[in-house]
Amino acid sequence: MASVSLKNVQKNFGDTLVIKGVDIEIEHGEFVVFVGPSGCGKSTLLRMIAGLEDISAGDLSIGEKVVNALPPKERGVSMVFQSYAIFPHMTVRENVAFGLTIAKVPDAEKNAKVQNAARILQMEHLLDRRPNQLSGGQRQRVAIGRAIVREPAVFLFDEPLSNLDAALRMDMRMEIANLHKQLDATMIYVTHDQVEAMTLADKIVVLRDGEVMQAGAPMDLYLEPDNQFVAGFLGSPAMNFIQVNVSELDATHAMVIGPGLAPTRVPHRGRAHTAGQSMTFGLRPQHMWPAEDGKLAGVVGISERLGSETVVNFRLQDDSSLIASLGTDQIFTPGQTVAFDFDPETAHLFADLK
Amino acid sequence: MREFVPSAQLMLGTRYLVLVLIAVIFIFPLLFMAMSSLKPNLQLLTDTESMRAFLPVGELSFDNYKAAFSRAPILTFVFNSLFVTATTVILTLLVCSLTAFSFVFLQWRGREIAFSMIIATMIVPFETIAIPLLLMVSKLPWLGAEGFELGWLNTYRVQIIPWIADGLTVFLFVQYFKGLPHEFIEASRVEGASWWQIYRRVVMPLCGPVIATAAILKFLVMYNQYLWPLIVVQQETYRPVMVGLQYFFQYNTAWGEVMAYLTMITLPVLAFYLFLQKAFIASIASTGVKG
Question: Do the interacting molecules here have an ipTM over 0.85?
Answer without folding.
Answer: no
